Amino acid sequence: MSQLEILGISYRFPDGTTALRDVTMRISEGEFVIISGKNGSGKTVLLRILNGLIKPTAGTVNINGISVVENPFEARRELGLVFQQSDSQIVGQTVTDDIAFGLENIGMNSDEVKIRVRQTLERTGLEDHASQRPRTLSGGEKRRLTIAGVAAMSPSIIALDEPFSNLDYPGVVQVLEQLVNLNEQGHTILLVTHDLDKVLAHATRLVLIDKGSVIADGNPLDALNYAGQCGVRSPKGITSDNIGELTWLKD
Ligand SMILES: Nc1ncnc2c1ncn2[C@@H]1O[C@H](COP(=O)(O)OP(=O)(O)OP(=O)(O)O)[C@@H](O)[C@H]1O
Ligand SMILES: [Mg+2]
After folding, report:
1. CB-proximal residues (5 Å) to ion ligand 2
2. What per-residue confidence (pLDDT) applies to 1?
3. For the whole model, what pTM was predicted?
4. What are the distances in angstroms from CA 7 to CA 22, 41, 49, 59, 81?
5. Please, which pLDDT band fits residue 251 given cuts at 50, 70 and 90?
6. Is 169 near ligand 1, meaning CB less than 6 Å away?
7. Using CA positions, which residue lies closest to atom 19 of ligand 1?
């Protein structure tokens, strides 16, 4: 059994727009998967289905054997979603409070919350900001806080919608470092992005979506052959010899 099974998912909005068509993917523990596709291809709708926020019109999603449609709350503990808009996900008065909020919400006792918050601050490199007010954080720091808030809940899978959008170069590098660390700590990463050149070297797999259908799914170099037809910019001159250089961590 794969950790994440997406089986024959389709989604149609009430106005008749078909956002996803028979999407099937099986993702294993520890993978670092990039999902890419042009605007409107269905990436955000897919993430919202995986997180149980909307129900597919057809198909099923199982996370560690738990059906997302039948048990969305339980499944959400296994797959945490980081939204594109950081501000909508930040609720605490301080960085520490914000990370604690989700844990308190699931009924964790206050001693455990303290330990978990401290661990999360360390693991996500936010210790120096522990008592800062979130609205005074930079864009990159805010993004890292939303990722930390999700990581604190220890979901086995962390899914992120365009985590690099609106970030400057240092912001991208900080977020990327955080994601690579979380992957090394055992979290499966599911990252939706247009910016392949920032992160492709870290991916074990690239999925390309167009008009709601999976067009390519495999090792990044093979899948890149379909980038043009999916409206995704393929980094120039990429070969098996230099694909390892495709990361902003090495600039
Ligand atoms: N509430 C809605 N009602 C009708 N159609 C919608 C609704 N929300 C999204 N759509 C349509 O569903 C399709 C998929 O949208 P989605 O937001 O998943 O795209 P995306 O791949 O995330 O795009 P982007 O790269 O711009 O974020 C698009 O055609 C969009 O217009
Ligand atoms: Mg989107």
Report:
1. 44
2. 77
3. 0.95
4. 8, 18, 12, 6, 19
5. low
6. no
7. 40
